[in-house]
Design brief:
globular
Length: 216
């Protein structure tokens, strides 16, 4: 299935679910969206790339359910880029969320994005590992919601069963829990001053990931 067809299929098959503004679930067919997806796929394992797609889907579904408005292209690009810092190609030795934010800003600048819009994406990428408040952009809040849903199962139960099942069918997890824990543990061991180290060693992040209501 092509670059955009998974999310288009998701949108088209949710007609019987009590949601509104389903067009938000369809990824804009833009050069930037296509490039972001290509970068995500080429840099990431299939399991990590599918996590990025699911994070977009969960965030968009929760945004629709909550009546939030957002820039669909910016949220999609942020979702594709939010874990770039975990990949060898974009790990620059800093905290992975900062490396990813820096990469996002540079890539989008090269694609001709205005600085303010690039900042929206970069901040969303950075903040998904930090505290997000109501004062932050909708894109940051929905990326945070989408990643929390996929990593720890937060609010997944709020979504209609057919929507949950379809997202997982379109973007299988492929052993994501253990794969993601191993990626975070590698980051923490090499970068003890970063927030990922505190998440693992002070907040029990690995146990939370493994306890998420998904099979793998």
């Amino acid at each position: 299935m092509g670059r955009n067809e998974h999310l288009r299929l998701l949108a088209s098959r949710l007609g019987g679910i009590d949601l509104h503004e389903l067009e938000h679930l369809t990824v804009p067919d833009t050069a930037s969206a296509r490039r972001a997806e290509d970068i995500c796929r080429s840099a990431s394992s299939e399991s990590l790339a599918n996590h990025c797609f699911r994070s977009y889907a969960w965030g968009a579904l929760l945004g629709v359910a909550d009546g939030v408005g957002w820039d669909a292209e910016a949220l999609y690009v942020a979702s594709m880029f939010h874990d770039l810092g975990l990949t060898p190609a974009y790990d620059r030795g800093g905290c992975f969320e900062q490396d990813g934010a820096n990469a996002a800003r540079e890539i989008l600048s090269g694609l001709g994005w205005e600085a303010a819009r690039s900042k929206t994406v970069a901040e969303a990428v950075y903040l998904h590992m930090h505290e997000v408040s109501d004062a932050d952009t909708p894109e940051a809040r929905l990326l945070d919601a989408g990643t929390a849903a996929d990593v720890r199962g937060v609010r997944v139960a709020d979504l209609a069963g057919p929507a949950r099942d379809l997202v997982l069918d379109l973007f299988p997890r492929l052993g994501f829990k253990e794969h993601f824990v191993s990626l975070l543990e590698d980051q923490a061991s090499r970068k003890p001053g970063c927030v990922v180290h505190r998440y693992l060693h002070e907040r029990g992040a690995a146990a939370q990931i493994r306890a998420a209501p998904f099979d793998s």
